[in-house]
Specification:
With about 400 residues, the chain is α+β, with helices and mostly antiparallel strands. It has three domains: about 120 residues, Orthogonal Bundle (Butyryl-Coa Dehydrogenase, subunit A, domain 1); about 110 residues, Butyryl-CoA Dehydrogenase, subunit A, domain 2 (Beta Barrel), CATH 2.40.110; about 150 residues, Butyryl-CoA Dehydrogenase, subunit A, domain 3, CATH 1.20.140.10. The protein contains ten helices and ten strands. A four-stranded mixed sheet has the order 1-4-5-8, covered by helices on one side. A four-stranded antiparallel sheet has the order 2-3-7-6. A hairpin with a 5-residue loop joins strand 4 and strand 5. Helix 3 packs across helix 6 and helix 8 packs antiparallel against helix 9. The longest helix is centred in the middle third of the chain and has 36 residues. The radius of gyration is 21 Å and the shape is globular. The protein starts with 14 loop residues before the first helix and ends in a 7-residue tail after the last helix. The structure holds flavin-adenine dinucleotide. Flavin-adenine dinucleotide binds next to strand 1, strand 3 and helix 10.
Length: about 400
């Protein structure tokens, strides 16, 4: 047995991970925190700051170095998301849509020509990416998707349909679409009427690709742009098909695993910030002649939040450690950690508001924004109900997991 196993901190397992976290803490304090409140209020995406993430090697965090990435693992992805979300979950959602939903997917599933041509641009921040799976009428029921792709005689594909709720779908207020969109479309139908799904790389400027609308007035994540995308006889060359036709379920499922870890890690950042805020305030605020931290009901808010935060931290980094970005196979825990971590984050932000009273309820004190942002984590990347369904199904197939 190795004698140093007790000294391993799962959240910072190597020197490289520690340095990444420390670099991010400085970057977040200097560059992210000062703009977070304003961009949330104005419902605007900070594109310049987003591009800066590329200068720090964060946009291609899980991409091999030969394509312009940083060649790091799922633990590094969790670290970046946790640290960015400590300050600005909205910016982090835009980052996740690009780095985890589009870039990581291409790095692990694209062919050599696609990777060589596109990865350097998305790793540097020259191009902004998005991933389009959901539709106006189909979210959880993803294989009901109605966006179709048909191949013409000249080999090109023609895409028709609409995608909804696409983070980074529009990059500004003028309806400029993302530079590159990882699109899932129906290229066939199986005997049960379910979609056979194929991935297409859609590039800005392709005929028939446009932003339908930017979606305003979201509860939270207002510093990220969410858009409807329209494909109207959109013509795509065959070299922009990823993998084999009809075979995209494999990489869709594989990439959902890192997405869920990423979203749970965002919850962790929200939880840590909320806990720090309520803990500090409980000493500063006095009522009835004592600090409010002396009251049993306030102690319950702080005590429960600490315990949940610590449980989240262990589960997020244990799941990240066990997730190989090259393979799928960790659905049970990626569903589990998102199910637990997102609601825990929302509850901890909620308690922070409660502890801080009226101050907690206004933007300047941050926790109300974190609470609004946390709610999205229970919906995006799979609803709580979808995680419950997947976990129950997986445990019926593999009950031995419980006894491991
Ligand atoms: C801010 C934001 C950003 C997003 N970004 C993206 C993105 O970048 N790309 C993208 O493709 N999508 C994105 N989404 C879409 C998101 O993934 C979907 O909203 C989510 O998957 C749920 O789909 P839906 O909204 O259609 O709800 P539905 O699937 O219609 O669900 C409605 C309700 O029914 C429940 N339900 C559905 N099926 C079942 C079932 N079998 N059993 C039990 N309950 C069920 C759900 O859990 C939910 O409570 C984003 C959404 C938001 C709000």
């Amino acid at each position: 047995m190795s004698d140093d196993w007790q000294s391993i901190d799962m959240a910072n397992p190597t020197e490289e991970h520690k340095m990444l976290r420390s670099m991010l803490r400085d970057f977040v304090a200097e560059e992210v925190e000062p703009q977070a409140l304003e961009y949330d209020r104005e419902e605007k995406f900070n594109l310049d700051l987003f591009r800066k993430l590329g200068e720090y090697g964060l946009l291609g965090i899980s991409v091999p170095e030969e394509y312009g990435g940083s060649g790091m693992d799922a633990t590094a992805v969790a670290i970046v998301n946790e640290e960015l979300s400590y300050s600005d979950p909205g910016l982090c959602l835009a980052y996740l849509a690009h780095a985890q939903l589009m870039v990581n997917n291409l790095a692990h599933n694209g062919n050599e020509a696609q990777k060589t041509r596109i990865l350097p641009k998305v790793c540097s921040g020259e191009w902004v990416g998005c991933m389009a799976m959901s539709e106006p009428g189909y979210g959880t029921d993803v294989l009901g998707m109605q966006t179709t792709a048909k191949q013409r005689e000249d080999g090109h594909w023609v895409i028709n349909g609409r995608k909804m709720w696409i983070t980074n779908g529009a990059v500004d207020e003028d309806g400029t679409p993302a530079d590159i969109c990882w699109l899932y479309a129906r290229t066939g139908t199986d005997s049960k009427g379910r979609a056979e799904v194929t991935t297409f790389l859609i590039e800005k400027g392709m005929t028939g690709f446009a932003v339908g609308q930017k979606i305003y007035d979201k509860t939270g994540m207002r510093a990220s742009n969410t858009a409807e995308l329209v494909f109207d006889d959109c013509v795509v060359p065959s070299e922009n098909v990823v993998g084999s036709v009809g075979d995209s379920m494999i990489h869709m499922m594989r990439n959902l695993e890192i997405e869920r870890i990423g979203l749970a890690a965002m919850g962790l950042g929200i939880a840590r910030r909320s806990l720090a805020a309520m803990n500090r305030y409980a000493s500063e605020r006095e009522a009835f002649g004592s600090e409010i931290r002396d009251f049993g009901q306030i102690q319950r808010h702080i005590g429960e939040s600490w315990a949940e935060y610590r449980a989240m931290r262990a589960y997020v980094y244990d799941t990240a450690r066990n997730t190989d970005l090259e393979k799928s196979g960790n659905r049970l825990d990626t569903d589990g950690v998102k199910l637990f971590g997102t609601t825990a984050a929302k509850n901890i932000a909620d308690r922070a508001i409660q502890v801080m009273g009226g101050y907690g309820y206004v933007g300047e004190y941050t926790v109300e924004r974190l609470w609004r942002d946390a709610k999205l984590l229970e919906i995006g990347g799979g609803t709580l109900e979808s995680h419950q369904k997947n976990i129950t199904r997986d445990l019926s197939r593999s009950p031995e997991k419980i006894e491991e």
